[in-house]
Backbone:
């Protein structure tokens, strides 16, 4: 039976963590494991994760990091941990319910025929929360268009963070070369996956606004993403030549 790991980076997600863990485990996905990667959350998310792990021995794992070191490095450390534990497939998702946990099943189902599956807000059937302001939707749409055009990616939602990977796909990606954080991390990983020739599938998802806790997105992260797109284009010229 294949082993599935779900990686969830956290920073001040104590309100959401118990609920997201229970929801995921109640999906009855065979041989599923959850990895929490906590950046020393001031609200005690890391300690809470350890308490929850005691209730699910051998199924819930926790990585504690020294501080707020960034989304990209959290996922890279998480991916490496899962691979070291023999994961056959790895899902990445947010803790704040912006990604519907029930959609994990659809991601994994499509992973049977593809090497990476992406939950997309921008293909037919996908959508953003109606409560998003027009300017916010416009910024998100433009950010995706901007990255797609510059990098020549045939993916509609290159900044989306709800994804499923086969273990061989992650092993085939030079994870130590990935330096981006925030939105740019998602872009960089999608670009490498495309350049390496892995099969990518987008499935529609509804992206909800969080109802508990505070958003981690900031203008600084958005500006970094825009700048990093150009760096990503040149940093992987060796892969484009293949």
Residues:
């Amino acid at each position: 039976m294949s082993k599935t790991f779900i990686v969830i980076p956290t920073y001040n997600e104590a309100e959401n963590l118990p609920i997201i863990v229970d929801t995921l485990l109640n999906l009855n996905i065979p041989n599923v494991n959850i990895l929490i990667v906590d950046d020393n959350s001031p609200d005690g998310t890391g300690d809470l994760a350890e308490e929850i792990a005691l209730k699910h021995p051998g199924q819930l794992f926790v990585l504690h990091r020294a501080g707020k070191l960034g989304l990209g490095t959290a996922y890279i450390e998480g991916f490496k941990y899962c691979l070291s534990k023999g994961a056959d497939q790895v899902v990445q998702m947010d803790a704040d319910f912006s990604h519907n946990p029930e959609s994990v099943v659809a991601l994994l189902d499509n992973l049977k025929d593809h090497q990476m599956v992406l939950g997309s807000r921008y293909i037919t059937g996908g959508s953003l929360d109606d409560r998003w302001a027009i300017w916010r939707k416009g910024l998100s749409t433009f950010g995706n268009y901007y990255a797609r055009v510059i990098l020549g990616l045939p993916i509609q939602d290159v900044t989306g963070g709800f994804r499923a990977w086969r273990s061989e796909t992650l092993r085939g990606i030079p994870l130590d070369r990935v330096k981006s954080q925030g939105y740019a991390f998602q872009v960089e990983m999608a670009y490498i996956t495309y350049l390496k020739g892995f099969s990518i599938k987008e499935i529609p998802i509804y992206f909800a606004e969080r109802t508990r806790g505070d958003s981690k997105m900031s203008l600084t992260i958005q500006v970094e993403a825009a700048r990093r797109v150009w760096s990503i284009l040149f940093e992987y010229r060796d892969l484009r030549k293949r």
About this structure: The CA atoms of residues 100 and 206 lie 8 Å apart.
